Amino acid sequence: DACASFSYSLVHAVGYSAPTQSGIERELGLSMAEFAIFGSVLTIGAMIGAVTSGRLADSLGRKMTMRIAAIICVFGWLSIHFAKGATMLYFGRTLLGFCTGVLSYVVPVFIAEIAPKDLRGGLATSNQLLIVCGSSTTYITGALVTWRNLVLVGIVPSVLLLVGLLFIPESPRWLAQAGREEEFHASLQRLRGENADISEEAIEIKEYIESLQSFPRARIQDLFLSRNIYAVIVGVGLMIFQQLGGINGVGFYASFIFSSAGFSGKLGTILIGIVQIPITLLGAFLMDRSGRRVLLMVSASGTFLGCFLAGISFYLKAHGLFLEWVPALALSGILVYIGAYSIGMGPVPWVIMSEIFAINIKAIGGSLVTLISWLGSFAVSYSFNFLMDWSSAGGRSSCSLRRAWSLYCSWQG
């Protein structure tokens, strides 16, 4: 469906740089610094998209916002496909980032607004699963085709999204908020079925809209009032820890990491894709059964172990010790890291963010947390390539230890 196309399109844009680094650098003659910019400039566009997404979705509607983003996404992919140098690559990547920032807000909101109550949680989880499936497909496909052909693969879901939007109704909640009564009832009836009784749900939606309008307009400074500041600290703190864990560095430069350890970059990225799907399914199954806190603790411990193993492998390589173990240790470390991240540190902060903010500051609080997430993503993705080249062997491992310990202590407290 249209939302599935979005999920694939989003992660295809984010994960595109991981399997294509060597091909792009070789064909276009990019330096390490230039490719670092290419890998990270997506997050700059995403920050702009995240900041503007709420206003766009509220003023233009959910469908129109998704349609505009999908069109821009196509132009972004074409810019990368026909690139002859770094400038066109950066331009296309920035466009993709903007679309990613917009769609990563609008689509979950759209799903929540059109889904029946009893299916809302399941559809939100399935969206996360589709994102992981798209990520896995990108890693696997990228190992088999050239970087220009992988661009064409990215265009397909954007086109499917445009086509799918022709056949799905607008969000009933947005129509009700916009005062378009006839379209509101028609949309809700179409979503629930011709013979369904929508009268009770229609009243509930209208009451919800009225309650929203009864609150004063939220301002940035409202986030820092005593009644809201704890939620802000939790939401922002989780996103900072999520990004400082280095997931986007690993995701953007996975092929380079494997190659540096003496393991096949293509095979390594394929294995990442294979590991992600079942682990994410397990995380979705455990989300409401084990609780958010337990999943975060298990995930943080696992990401530490993965980073520690990868750090040990590079330490051994730098000192010429047990060289035959280096590729296996690096592979094990990265796979453990990706698996542990997928079960908790990946999905849980976003779920918590959707639950902790009061109704009147939910939109502005969500925008702040999303902006912080993309800002952290930029810092990590831009610096990661340089850290891999500059840092002493084992340095990343010790940093991972300190980060995991501070995370553990903060949760225990």
TrEMBL record:
Matches recorded under Gene3D superfamilies: MFS general substrate transporter like domains (1.20.1250.20)
Superkingdom classification of source: Eukaryota
GO CC terms of this entry: membrane
Bilayer-spanning residue ranges: 35-52, 64-83, 95-115, 151-168, 229-255, 267-287, 294-316, 328-352, 364-384
InterPro entries found in the cross-reference section: MFS_dom (IPR020846), MFS_ERD6/Tret1-like (IPR044775), MFS_sugar_transport-like (IPR005828), MFS_trans_sf (IPR036259), MFS_Trehalose_Transporter (IPR050549), Sugar/inositol_transpt (IPR003663), Sugar_transporter_CS (IPR005829)
Pfam families associated with the record: Sugar_tr (PF00083)
Keyword terms of this UniProt record: Membrane, Sugar transport, Transmembrane, Transmembrane helix, Transport
MF (Gene Ontology): sugar transmembrane transporter activity
Domain Major facilitator superfamily (MFS) profile intervals: 1-413
Record localization: Membrane
Membrane-protein topology: Multi-pass membrane protein
Main localisation: membrane
Family: Belongs to the major facilitator superfamily. Sugar transporter (TC 2.A.1.1) family.
NCBIfam families, A to Z: SP (TIGR00879)
The protein, known as: Major facilitator superfamily (MFS) profile domain-containing protein
Organism: Aegilops tauschii subsp. strangulata (Goatgrass)
